[in-house]
Design goal:
The protein is mainly α. It is built from 31 helices and seven strands. Belongs to the sodium:neurotransmitter symporter (SNF) (TC 2.A.22) family. SLC6A15 subfamily.
Amino acid sequence: MPKNSKVVKRELDDEVIESVKDLLSNEDSADDAFKKSELIVDVQEEKDTDVEEGSEVEDERPAWNNKLQYILAQVGFSVGLGNVWRFPYLCQKNGGGAYLLPYLILLLVIGIPLFFLELSVGQRIRRGSIGVWNYISPKLGGIGFASCVVSFLVCFFVALYYNVIIGWSLFYFSQSFQQPLPWDQCPLVKNASHTFVEPECEKSSATTYYWYREALNISNSISESGGLNWKMTICLLAAWVVVCLAMIKGIQSSGKIMYFSSLFPYVVLLCFLIRALLLNGSTDGIRHMFTPKLEMMLEPKVWREAATQVFFALGLGFGGVIAFSSYNKRDNNCHFDAVLVSFINFFTSVLATLVVFAVLGFKASVINEKCIAENSEMIIKFLKMGNLSHDIIPHHINFSAVTAEDYHLVYDIVQKVKEGEFPALHLNSCQIEDELNKAVQGTGLAFIAFTEAMTHFPASPFWSVMFFLMLVNLGLGSMFGTIEGIITPIVDTFKVRKEILTVICCLLAFCIGLIFVQHSGNYFVTMFDDYSATLPLLIVVILENIAVSFVYGIDKFIEDLKDMLGFAPNRYYYYMWKYISPLMLLSLLIASVVNMGLSPPGYNAWIEDKASEEFLSYPTWGMVVCISLMVLAILPVPVVFVIRRCNLIDDSSGNLASVTYKRGRVLKEPVNLEGDDASLIHGKISSEMSSPNFGKNIYRKQSGSPTLDTAPNGRYGIGYLMADMPDMPESDL
C-alpha cells in the first residue's frame, strides 16, 4: 500500500541511533539534543506533534483490553508466593504484631509512594526499565543502567530459589491424590518384636515430620549436603520446563483465564480461613499475630525484612511494574491503581497469615493439652507420694479432666507453697503463648500449617489439590515476571532471539538450582532469601527515588503527573518522594549493614534426634557465599560509576557498533557518535521522543499488514502478556 508523505516523514523521524557506548558513556549530549529540539519547535508544532505522536503511540504500543484486565494482571504480578509463603513465615519469625506494624508503616511511607512512582514513570515514558532510567537519569553517571543490572541479578537469584518452592508445591500436589493424605498420621516402624510410632514424628507432628523427612529428607546442617534429593530434583526440572514453555509460547490464553486465576486464590484462602477458625485454639494464634512486641520492633532486622517484603510484594525494583504500566494509556489513573493494588496485596498477605496463625494456634493448643495432661499426672504422683498436701488443692479440681484454667490455678498454688523446692518438682507452666513463641518453622511454615489445616477438612484430598494448585499458579505468576526481568534487558541490549535465550536461561538456572534440592538444600533457600535480594533491592529503590526526585526533578515530575492524570497528586507524595522515603530507605540501608556486621548470619537447622529446630551459624565458606551474594548483586553500581566518571571507554574506538532502529527493521552500522546528536531526535519534545527500547519499534503497524493490537508472539516484550501472533513483515524501507 502506498504511503503518504506524512507517514514517510514520520518513518524518517522515528529513526533512532544508539550504541553500546550510550549505556556506559556520558549522555549529556542527549540532554543538549532535547534542549535544541525544544528551541526550534514552536508552540503550535509542539501541540501538533504531541497529538500526532500520542495517537501513534497509542496505536503502535500493545495495550490492555480493558481496565479490569490490567488491574488483575498487576494483582497477579504482585500477589504471589511472597504473600502466601514468605509473608506468613516472616511475620511468625519476627513476632507477629511486631512485624505487622512496621510492615504497614513501610507500606504507607515507602511501598505505595514508590509503587505509584514506578507506575507513573512506566506510563509516562512508555519504555522498559533500561530505557526509562537511561532517559530519566543520564547525569547519574550510569546509575540508571547499573540499577537495571542490579535488578537483573536480583531477578536471577530470586528465580533460582522461587522455582524450588514451585517444585515443593508440585511434589505435594502429586501426593494429594490419596485418601488419607500421607501427612495425616505419623508412620509406624516395625522391628522383629513390636511396632511403634516413628520417634522423630512423635516428638514433633505428622505434618512437620512429612515436610522435613519425607519431602526434604533434610540433613542436620548446611555442611552435610547428603547428595541430591531425587524426588525434588524431578519436581524442580518439571517446574523449569513449565516456565520455559510458557515463556517461549507466551500465554495470552491467560487473558482468558486471568479472571479465574486471579480470584481462585481468594476462594481457597477464605475456605481455609473459615475452617481454621473453627479449630480449637485458633483465636489464641490470631491474638498472638496481632499482639505487637515492642522489644522486637526496635530491632533493625525486623524493619529490614519488612521493607524487603514490601519490595517483594509489590515488585518494586524488579522492573516488572514499569513494564506493565508502559502498556497503559497515557491518561490512565495510575494513582488509583497504585493504592488499589497495594491494599489488595496487603489484604491477601493478611488473609494468608490469618490462616497460618489460626492453624499455629490450633497446633499450640494440642501441644499445650498434652503438656497439661503430663504435668497433671506428675502432680497426682506427688500427692500420692506425700510431696504435696491434698489440702492445697481446691475441691473443684478434677485431675482426670483438668482444664487449662484449673491447671494454671494449681500450678500457681504449688509454686507459692513450695517456693524453695519448686524447681526440683520440674513442673511446666504449659502456657500456650510459650508454644506460639517457639513454633518457628522457617521457610516450611506455610507448607506445615496449611497441610495441618487440610487434614481436618472433609474430602481433604480435594482441598489439598486445590491449595497446591493455587500455590503453583501463584508461583508461576511470580516466576513469569521474574524471568521476564532477566530476559528482556538481554534481548533489548544484545538483540538475541527470545526463544533461544529463554531455553539457555532456564537450563542454566536449573543446573545452578540443583544446590537447592540437596538434602541441605532448604538451608540454601534460606540463605538466598535472606541475603541475595535484601540490600540490592534497597539500593535499586533508593536509586530510583533519587533519579526521579533529585535528577529529573520532583517539581517537573509532579507537573508531568498533572498533565498525564488531569489532576495534581496529593501533596503527601511530594514530601514522601523528596524527603521521607529516601531518608527512610537510607536509614534502613545503614541499619541493615551495621546489623549484619554485628550479628553473624545463621540459619535454623532441623536436628533429627531432637525433632526440633536449632539456630546454627554459617560455616566460614557459608559466610563467604552470603557476602558474595550481596557484593555480586551490588557490584554493577560502583563499576559502572567508575567507568562513566573516569571515561574508561575509549570514545574514539571504532569497535563500538551502533544500532539504527526503523519501523520493522534493525540495521547495524558504524556511526560517528560525536556529531550525531541531531539524529537522536528530529523536532520532538523530550517527553515524546521515540523510544530507544528495541521492543517498541518492532511493534509498529506495517502498511498492508493486518491490524495488530499485541506484540508478535511476545518476542521482544513482556511475553506472558501478549498473544501468540505471527511475525510482523519487514517494512520496505
